[in-house]
Amino acid sequence: MISINTNAASNSASYNLNKSNANLQRSLTRLSSGFRINSSFDDAGGLAVSMKLSASIRRTDAVATGVANGISYLETQDGVLQAAGDVLTRMAELATLAQDVTKSTTDLANYDLEYQALIDQLTAMDGETFNGIGLVDGTALTVITSEDGSQNLALGAVDLDGTVTGTLTGNLTSTANAATQAGLIDTAIISLGTLRATNGGDQSRLSFAADLLAVNKTNLEAANSRIIDVDVAYESTQLARWLILQQSGTAMLAQANSTKETLLRLLQ
Question: Residue 80's closest CA among 252, 191, 234, 196?
Fold first, then answer.
């Protein structure tokens, strides 16, 4: 049937052309953005999952930064402990020299001058900080090691003065005093070794935590990519399809509209 008021063929061609144009725009948007999902209309469920994964990735990055800062803190702390060890080694040497029975009172006084200066240096080390946080004053820190906050590491509290140097308040003014100090220094060195071992254990654990976070982030990004990233090869094929349909739809719409000319010829 040929009708004047209604051109069903034209309406159908127009509808299909509009669909092709919309799909073509969608393909262009996907290819230009690199994302398969650019709005909730594209994939509402996928977008919801992707948002959760993206948030997890951001939190993992934040936790990894905190772990890296924790490692830096421990490295700096170990530097202080190593310096304290060097000081104790020199103090042990002075205490041994002061036990030499051939040394005069003046010699002992000279040894004691350096010895007291080194005690002051150990005391000063107790005030060392990292970004305003005490390094060896017994400050207790806890580092979050998982993205969901369920796992953490309580760093060993290092109190240099309380466990190592607090007892070294004597002098080397006599061989007897020197012998006493030598024994105390030996004990201090053992305690310092324990502190450094604790520090090393914490560094090792944080390093493994950092590795795990890196692996988790990679896996989360891969999972999110499968949901939200565009498959360029597939979408390029779709783009070609919609371009062809758009062109053919335009031609068919023009053809459908030309039927009015047939009516005019009938009426002539």
Answer: 196
